[in-house]
Amino acid sequence: MSKLQVDQIRSFNRTVTRRIGVLEDSYLRRGRPLGEARLLFEIGPEGAGLGALRSRLGLDSGYLSRMLRSLETHGLASVDKLDGDARSRFATLTEKGRAEHAAYDALSDDLANSILEPLSPAAQDRLVAAMAEVERLLTAAAVTIGEEDANSADAQQCMALYIEELATRFEEGFDTSKGNSVSGSEFIRPHGSFLIARLDGSPAGCGAVRMLDAATAEIKRMWVAPSARGLGVAGRMLHKLEEIARELGAQTVYLDTNRALREAQSLYKRDGYAEIKPYNDNPYADHWFAKRL
Amino acid sequence: MSKLQVDQIRSFNRTVTRRIGVLEDSYLRRGRPLGEARLLFEIGPEGAGLGALRSRLGLDSGYLSRMLRSLETHGLASVDKLDGDARSRFATLTEKGRAEHAAYDALSDDLANSILEPLSPAAQDRLVAAMAEVERLLTAAAVTIGEEDANSADAQQCMALYIEELATRFEEGFDTSKGNSVSGSEFIRPHGSFLIARLDGSPAGCGAVRMLDAATAEIKRMWVAPSARGLGVAGRMLHKLEEIARELGAQTVYLDTNRALREAQSLYKRDGYAEIKPYNDNPYADHWFAKRL
DNA sequence: CTCATTACCTGACTTTAGTCAGGTAATTTG
DNA sequence: CAAATTACCTGACTAAAGTCAGGTAATGAG
Fold first, then answer.
1. Nearest C-alpha of chain B: how many angstroms from A256?
2. Domains of chain A by residue range
3. Are B208 and B159 in contact (CB under 8 A)?
4. CA B122 – C1' C20 distance (Å)?
5. Dihedral over Cα of A67, A69, A74, A80: its sign
6. Per-residue tens of pLDDT for chain B, all 293 residues
7. Per-residue pLDDT, A23
8. For residue A272, what are the CA distances in angstroms to A238, A242, A289, B232, B284?
């Protein structure tokens, strides 16, 4: 992280927030307070629950309530009871509200066009490609990976999704009872550890280590949610797991994998793992790897 | 401008304003209203005139006055008479204010680091490169080119800078009286036209056309400010001038150039101009070009 | 069935941001 | 030198944004 890199990022922040921010402001107000405009946009044609709106926009409950009332009195939205829980309420746009939403949508398009329009087609392509790259990498940078309790609800959810994926991807299917599954307590220090990757708070992947003997660790349950793939999450996860293995006293790390998981195999090889003879009798394993730390 | 491009830009705007905006907010407030924080930052260690602050931050005179008073009462800044014009005043940071500024500066660096830190070195390089590209192209997109009065102060200023540049770049120097200079009135419709490129309001380049005869136009005075080079401004300028020439009835466009202006020559060639025999006796011209519209 | 919790609402605030109509002193212009 | 202009200040506003301390009805836990 050189001074030059940091300066480039700071300069980018200034330029982009200035150029885009100013445009957004002028394009997206439509004579309405920005808060209400955002709320209208966030409700969207499909409607949204109040709780979801509150958390997405980071609003105080009272503030949201008042803004919704304002949208209602302007005939733009209606708030009704949600079937199921009579406490929860659900906001929907009226006909007029949907028209406003469509207008905002069109303005957003205009805004994007106003950025592209002055550029030559080649420059347009370059801008769009660079934007995609920035977006992808900013998202990647927003992924956090931390040690968490292997028995937490989020951990269980990740594991369930992981198993579901194995079941669809393994040619032979996947039966939980047959895999040499390991209980959550094996992934708690000092026996092991469990990592969860999160993007904006929601789980986006997991990974676990446990000690096989005093000098050997095994990595298991490495999984990245489809929405977070291509961001280098698996690589970071693997490094963190190795670091923990080292802390726990391991000098060597083992892991096994199924032949269907090709991207996993190439990750392991890239990271310095070498294929070894089977070190277990996992019926779903086709390849076994080891790496000296 | 395909739907896909527009969608990518909208998605970029959302992601960047969310990720960067939220970070900036939390990093850069330091328990102070954002307006005051920005003002403090904008005054900077060197201080700044109130007029400059007003225009840079787009503030109402009364509002700025009050915010400065607030900074003063918190012991962060002081406002003194500027020597020269006793009406103008100049804001400076106190010791304490400079410390705050340094803290903001450090936080800005932290923010940038917090974005880079989770990424691998290779990804860091890609992010920084993509950010530079986005910034460059967004700046390019913000350049406007429009017809203006060739006798306006800004036009004269551009021309003066243009001539200054010729004087330093031509091996033989440049003497205004010898060049077949053309008065501003030649660049007024229906004889011709004058374009000024602007970035955030300030002139960043110019270009002119005039009719040599009923079917032939000549392009002159093409110049782009050093700060706006590499953004494709010259190309856009050239196209606009050709468009105007067409409107004025031209079927052919002529132009001449000095051998020292190599980037201009390559632009003309790229744009379809072919070298021709001298069509004038401009002592500074080494190459003459023509293009059929 | 009781009590705590949840999901939302209401009223009463405060702070921030921003505008507008004058005012004063210094300076420039004709 | 008078009149206009400039550079800033002051007071009196408004609107938007956000916070806080209670409420109420529905729901869930023991």
1. 25
2. 3-118, 143-292
3. no
4. 55
5. positive
6. 789 999 999 999 989 988 888 777 777 778 899 999 999 999 999 999 999 999 999 999 999 999 999 999 999 999 998 878 899 999 999 999 999 999 999 999 999 999 999 999 999 999 999 999 999 999 999 999 999 988 888 888 898 899 999 999 998 888 877 655 666 678 998 899 999 999 988 899 999 999 999 999 999 999 999 999 999 999 999 999 999 999 999 999 999 999 999 999 999 999 999 999 999 999 999 999 999 98
7. 81
8. 11, 12, 10, 46, 65
- What pLDDT does residue B180 have? 54
Is the predicted pLDDT of residue A180 greater than 60, yes or no? no
Same topology for domains A3-118 and A143-292, yes or no? no
Please tell me which residue lies nearest to nucleotide C19, judged from CA to C1'.
Answer: B60
CATH architecture of B24-118: Orthogonal Bundle (1.10)
Nucleotides of chain C within 7 Å of a protein C-beta? 6-12, 15-22, 25-28
Nearest chain B Cα distance for residue A288, angstroms: 26
Contact B111 A139 (CB under 8 A): no
Spatial distance between the Cα atoms of B253 and B242, rounded to a whole number of angstroms:
7
Contacts of B41 in chain A (CB under 8 A): none
- Cα–Cα dist A178/A164, whole Å: 15
| Spatial distance between the Cα atoms of B130 and B143, rounded to a whole number of angstroms | 20
CA–CA dist A253, A291 (Å, integer): 5
Pick the residue from chain A with its C-alpha nearest to B2: A113
Could you tell me which of A110, A123, A188, A126 has the C-alpha nearest to residue A152? A188
Strand D lies under 7 A from the Cβ of residue B87 = yes
Reduced to 3 states (helix: H, G, I; strand: E, B; else coil), residue B38 is helix
Do A10 and B112 lie within an 8 Å CB cutoff? yes
Report the phi/psi class of residue B201: left, alpha or beta, with left for phi > 0 and alpha for psi in -120 to 50. Answer: left
Flag if B24 and A13 touch (Cβ within 8 Å).
yes
Q: What is the 3-state secondary structure (H, E, C) of A120-184?
A: CHHHHHHHHHHHHHHHHHHHHHHEEEEECCCCCHHHHHHHHHHHHHHHHHCCCCCCCCCCCCCCH
Average pLDDT, rounded, for chain A: 92
Bridge pairing between strands B202-213 and B192-199: antiparallel
Q: How far apart are CA B147 and CA A68, in angstroms?
A: 47
CATH of A143-292, one of 3.40.50.300, 3.40.630.30, 2.40.50.140, 3.30.1300.10: 3.40.630.30
Facing B127 at nearest CB: one of A15, A132, A134: A134
- The gap between A13 CA and D11 C1' (Å) is 38
Whether CB of B83 is under 7 Å from strand D: the answer is: no
Nearest to A199 by CA among B150, B147, B19, B29: B19
Hey, which residues does B210 pair with through a beta bridge? B192, B218
| Interface probe, candidates A12, A38, A237, A239, chain B, greatest B C-beta count within 10 A | A12
CATH 3.40.50.10070 fits A3-118, yes or no: no
Residue B166: both structure tokens together:
């010729």
